[in-house]
Design goal:
The protein has two helices and six strands. It is an alpha+beta fold and 137 residues long.
Length: 137
């Protein structure tokens, strides 16, 4: 802990923003972190390359103002999560954790939309267009 009583992160660890990570199955998933380092949203979809994950994220970023969420009770346990439905009603992105109260979950989604809209555009290869998930997962 530091002098202020707060924990610290490993040197070079990013505190906030978009991050694509390789999962154990070799495919990529992305997450969005708040400036304080807390993961606020994850994608349940798996992508073959980090570039595909980035294009999916950029597609959401572009449409951030028009996103709507479905708030639902978690299957196992207590709490609420928000989910942005994608193609074929499969989740495009969801909250990274469950919230105890419905209203808190609503506010968390609103904060996600603001954070998403503030993200800088990803540098996509020339001719590439933002990608919405189409793998059906």
């Amino acid at each position: 802990m530091n002098a202020a009583g707060r924990g610290h992160t490993a040197a070079g660890a990013s505190r906030g923003g978009f991050r694509a990570e390789r999962a154990a199955d070799g495919r990529y998933r992305w997450q969005l972190k708040a400036p304080n380092g807390r993961v606020v949203a994850i994608t349940p979809a798996a992508f073959e390359t980090a570039g595909e994950a980035e294009r999916c994220f950029d597609g959401l970023r572009v449409t951030a103002a028009g996103l709507t969420a479905r708030i639902t009770h978690v299957r196992d346990g207590i709490g609420w999560i928000w989910v942005v439905p994608g193609s074929r009603s499969l989740p495009e992105v969801r909250s990274s954790r469950a919230y105890e109260r419905y209203a808190t979950c609503q506010n968390a989604f609103r904060r996600f939309v603001v954070l998403l809209a503030k993200q800088p555009p990803r540098e996509l290869p020339e001719g590439a267009v933002p990608l919405r998930r189409t793998d059906g997962r």
